[in-house]
Amino acid sequence: MSQTIDLTLDGLSCGHCVKRVKESLEQRPDVELADVTVTEAHVTGTASADALIETIKQAGYGATLSHPKAKPLTESSIPSEALAAVPHELPVATADEESQQLLLSGMSCASCVTRVQHALQSVPGVTQARVNLAERTALVMGSASAADLVQAVEKAGYGAEAIEDDIKRRERQQETAIATMKRFRWQAIVALAVGIPVMVWGMIGDNMMVTGDNRSLWLAIGLITLAVMVFAGGHFYRNAWKSLLNGTATMDTLVALGTGVAWLYSMSVNLWPQWFPMEARHLYYEASAMIIGLINLGHMLEARARQRSSKALEKLLDLTPPTARVVTEDGEKSVPLADVQPGMLLRLTTGDRVPVDGEITQGEAWLDEAMLTGEPIPQQKGEGDSVHAGTVVQDGSVLFRASAVGSHTTLSRIIRMVRQAQSSKPEIGQLADKISAVFVPVVVAIALFSAAIWYFFGPAPQIVYTLVIATTVLIIACPCALGLATPMSIISGVGRAAEFGVLVRDADALQRASTLDTLVFDKTGTLTEGKPQVVAIKTFNGVEEAQALRLAAALEQGSSHPLAHAILEKAGDDKLPQGERFQNAARTGRQR
After folding, report:
1. How many CA atoms lie within 13 A of 183 on its CB side?
2. Which of 42, 159, 308, 573 is the most exposed place for a label (fewest CB within 10 A)?
3. Every domain of the chain and the residues it spans
């Protein structure tokens, strides 16, 4: 039986390496398909994981198993219509291996992502860890405990919180996003409220040069700027210090160095002007305030965009009701959704949204399963048929027994798949992470090198040019865009697609979509409205069309079938004759 095995690769550095590994795998007779990138391989076939790893080693590279428990490519409990949308290897939480999600704090750039990801992957029991800078989340596969994962992240210098329940995660993520957005907004306002007036006044008035007449005024401005740096930019300096203790450098390191050097130089000129030549007594207080203000403004805009882009996925969570009607020996009662357990008997009536997956034991109903299968026409369900969380009862009443609840429902698995797709990285994102890992140290080295050249070989006053060059290199090189461009585009794309009922299996699909020249759609209802309409009437034996329509509409009065609705809509407001002794035959129609 075919299965898909995920491998994490080591030692690949270019397209030639990828091609060599792919060819080595596909040469095996027990391999049907090998999808290889620089960091991972997805192999479909009958080969064992050990055999695949050995083949890769013989090709000169390293490989480890990403998912120890590969899932066979067989039909799951998901309806057959949805199998094309939901991947077969969709992870199901077990006692041995499960997926856990962490909410992270303190990350500011792609270097932070690399640091957190390495910290999580070093925890015993972790088979795979995906860190998303845009959402500030981490998706961890394996058997490691949540406490160990949180501790590993905190040791790396960041904050983490484990959220097991999707509803609680959603609430905490919204609370954190709103609080973060408000904090960045106020920090940006305070910093720019100081930086802009000082910059304007210095440019049109005092020229930002310290003299005996304005020395006290500039000293006061310097102290105000220091207060701004502490209040609005304190997180930059704290994060930079944590990074230094961990032997790493991040975007915060660049900001802290740039603004700190500018302020220290300005304060030195302010306090001891006699140490500097007249032309070198230029102050840069406004630079520190403006840099902090603008970067905080950028963080605020990023947080707002992140919150908006996540709303599409959150709408999937709204498809389940907060309560369910449980039937017991004492009667029916409404209980919170979290209290529903497998085996419980539940009731559904017209208009209800199905709370959990289960099997109908009594009654019949029409269910709208469009959110799951894409089928726009409601389906009639009876005893023995399955129902799935999130679908809607259009008409009828049934009793059903719960079979899958919580994170084990089909809807929860779809949500988990979309979340994994949002956390996945296409090849371009993996390249950005590799660059960012060495980006900050290289930038600091370039800044020091540039400053040294201007100090030893530049024109006088060398100290001024040295400061300006070093600060400029440090500030303009902040890798914000490098770390955010890919994850933000993935979140927006995958989230927007989910809003329209399109499920993206992996972010690589979005990157490859740019090369597509043909799109093939599977069935009616994908592109069409999916609402039946009467477009023609054919009569016999001299019966007029209007009369035939009135009689057909009279027969269909009270029916909930989609075709009945189409006939009644065609008949319009005409007064219809009332029928007698009519019976609704299940799955057949109405009979006299």
Report:
1. 13
2. 573
3. 3-74, 98-172, 321-408, 545-591
Average pLDDT of span 533-550: 86
Say which residues have a Cβ less than 8 Å from residue 391's Cβ, sequence separation at least 6: 353, 354, 367, 368, 369, 371, 372
Annotated active-site residue 522? The verdict is: yes
Question: Could you give the CA distance from residue 560 to residue 495 in angstroms, rounded to a whole number?
Answer: 34
Taking all residues of the chain, what is their mean pLDDT, rounded to a whole number? Answer: 77
Helix (H) or strand (E) holding 190: helix 166-201
Q: Which of 96, 318, 339, 522 is catalytic?
A: 522
Q: Which two tokens stand for residue 242?
A: 């944590």
Sign, CA dihedral 371-375-378-384, equals negative
- What pLDDT digit, counting tens, does each position of 449-484 carry? 998 999 898 887 777 778 778 877 776 665 555 555
Question: In 246-385, which residue ranges form alpha helices assigned H by DSSP?
Answer: 251-271, 285-309, 311-317, 370-373
Task: Supply the DSSP symbol for 354.
Answer: P
Residue 366 phi, psi (nearest 5): -100, 125
Of the listed ranges 104-118, 167-181, 385-399, 427-441, the least confidently predicted one is: 427-441
Q: Which CATH number fits domain 98-172: 3.40.50.1970, 3.30.70.100, 3.40.50.300, 3.30.1300.10?
A: 3.30.70.100
Q: List 404's β-bridge partners, or say none.
A: 357
Maximum alpha-carbon separation in the chain: 114
Class of domain 545-591: alpha beta
Q: Is the separation of the CB atoms in 233 and 292 below 8 Å? A: yes
SS3 42: strand
- Regarding the domain delimited by 321-408, which CATH topology (the fold level of the hierarchy) does it fall under? 2.70.150
| pLDDT at 47 > cutoff 90 | no
Mean pLDDT of 238-252: 77
Residue where the block lists tokens 């401005």: 221
